[in-house]
Amino acid sequence: MNKAFIPVNGKSVWAPLLALVLFSLGGCQMNPVTGERNFQIYGSDWEQQVGGQMYAPMRQSQGGDFVIDPALTAYVNEVGQRLATQARRKELKYEFSIINSSVPNAWCLPGGKVVVNRGLLTELKSEAELAAVLGHEIVHADAAHGARQQSTGMLAQIGAVASMVILGSKVENQAAREIAMLVPTVGAQLIMQKYGRDAERESDLYGTTYMSEAGYDPQGAVTLQETFLRLSEGRNEDWLSGLFASHPPSKERVENNRKTVATLPAGGESGRDKYEQKTAFLRRVEPAYKAYDVAAKALSENRLDDAQASLSQAIKAEPREPLFHALQGDILVQKKNPKQALAAYERSIKAYDAFFYTHLRKGQLEYQQKQRAPARANLERSLQLLPTAEAHYLLGLLDRDEGQQQKAMAHFQAASQSKSDSGRLAQREVILVDLPRNPANYVAVRPAIDRSNQVWMQIGNGTDIALKNIEVAVTWLDDSGQTRQGRKVYPGPLPGGKQDQVNLNLKLTGVQDLSQRIRLQVSAAELAE
Q1: pLDDT for res 521
Q2: Cβ 389 vs Cβ 175: under 8 Å
Q3: What is the DSSP code string of 85-110?
Q4: 406 and 422 belong to one structural domain
Q5: Are residues 368 and 450 in the same domain?
Q6: Residue 163: inside a domain
Q7: What integer is the mean pLDDT of 428-456?
Q8: Per the CB 3.0–4.6 Å rule, which of 236, 264, 444, 520 could disulfide with 6?
Q9: How many structural domains is the chain composed of?
Q10: Residue-wise over 460-474: b if at least 16 C-beta within 10 A, else e?
Q11: HSE of 30 in the Cβ direction (CA atoms, 13 Å)?
């Protein structure tokens, strides 16, 4: 038997959002984009609330905003807003951001929250192609594709913890490298999901239509798909894990776009020269980001000298980029140089104060160096930007050591939702306090009877931590109708998430309903680790 049959319950730090998600507005609704009626139980309020609440954390989790060229972000927003005026649903408020990631990707959360990755912008050739990307994403929101897909139950269960690898950085422990972000799975699913073919066709068709209506040459949608199809046939995993994973190109999509363009007015703005001008800085510094990506990969493989050599090239080419200094801090941590690592993280924070990762990494290192006050400040700042198990766990330790037991428990309980190292350590802290008082919250027991009328106790450990000396009070009615009492101690250890069964050395005959004859109550348990 491999799994405990009753899990430990946890309270979500995102309870308000989960409550909102569970509220539905029912039935079939008219799609203002297509004019068709679609099954959709999640309405506009759900879309705008989920999109608004998830937009910032999902951007944080994928590298943070691209900040060293604000004019480029303003330009993307300008193009996006021009297209958004053609959207059929006027209640949605569209926002457009650039994510600081080399993975070529674009996505849209419900409610019109759109992102384009830095790595995609360098592959486009004209403003019309950018308009094709943004128009496609706008239609996903305008036609409520996310809400429709959620309504049909195609997304993963809401409220799970999403873990994502940040920056490809190899650091001292798994909990820092694979930071467990306490974000509902609905957020990650809504940007990583692979839409159905009908939704992709709708977004291609109406996105191209919106382009034309906004004054762009719709031929940009054709050249975009031709470019994507060519790139998808010869690119590496990063490409396949980006835009092509959620919006797979195909010859069919190219042909469909050509047919759509043939039905639209000829001409329109291409904007090739303007696009080259607006992206000139990005293209100029692109080699620095390629060097950074090489350095991050080398660090993940523990090739520290190679990582430093490539990163030095990146920093020399563009010393203002905060990601470069954050990675410098990670390299110096691995080189056992905490003083210089802290200085590197500080340079990154001064360049950009609103990225959770750098505050978290600096806070981790300051905690290790027993710099409690600055550690607390940086960990708290990281939580403001994105909740993580690691920040909650370390803040719990700080509160515990200062005698703030209630605050510590709140942090530990939040962190314990994660399956990361930090989550397991936080769960241990929670159990240390609560197990003596409420052992039944962590151990589940129930009786069972075999064909020879022998009564067994099935016992399950609902935690991720091994338990021992599990004491169970047993009360039963014997065959003469007399109430009997006893106790059974399971010495263990019983590993986390496992179950076992124990013979109670008790025989009952004439059993119709075992629950009416015997009661088991966990009265004590101890940590085995």
Answers
A1: 96
A2: yes
A3: TT-S-TT---EEEEES-SS--EEEET
A4: yes
A5: no
A6: no
A7: 93
A8: 444
A9: 3
A10: bbbbbbbbeebbbeb
A11: 4
